[in-house]
């Protein structure tokens, strides 16, 4: 599956792994699971792992925009981990649209991303 979500620690820490090219159907499976987990916590911390991620199909871009508009306000700290330059640029592009503190980490520094997320 191109999108996988895992709940870690006390439940307010989620990891989302994306790979390949995301489709609209991927969001139809992912969004209800995310909403279930997010509904259990006031503020979330998230690690978005984009290693081996190559983008979206056209219909999936709209699903991403709708998801972001509805859910990103509930995230207080967000680490984006990737392996391509465009992913780092995407992080900078997202910053003005998120209330969360957001940082990009190269995939070789994923352990540092997890450590940063765990800081008080």
Describe what you observe in this structure.
By secondary structure, the protein is of the alpha/beta class. 40% of the residues lie in helices and 32% in strands. The protein has a single domain (3-118), classed as Transcription Regulator spoIIAA (2-Layer Sandwich). The protein contains four helices and seven strands. The strands form two sheets. Strands 1-2-4-6-7 form a five-stranded mixed β-sheet, with helices on both faces. It is globular and about 40 Å long.
Topology record:
Elements: E1 3-8, E2 13-18, E3 20-22, H1 24-38, E4 44-49, E5 53-56, H2 58-71, E6 75-82, H3 85-94, E7 101-106, H4 110-118
Parallel strand pairs: 2-4, 3-5, 4-6, 6-7
Antiparallel strand pairs: 1-2
Helix pairs in contact: 1-2
Offer a concise description of the structure.
The protein has 120 residues and is an alpha/beta fold. The protein has four helices and seven strands, in the order βββαββαβαβα.
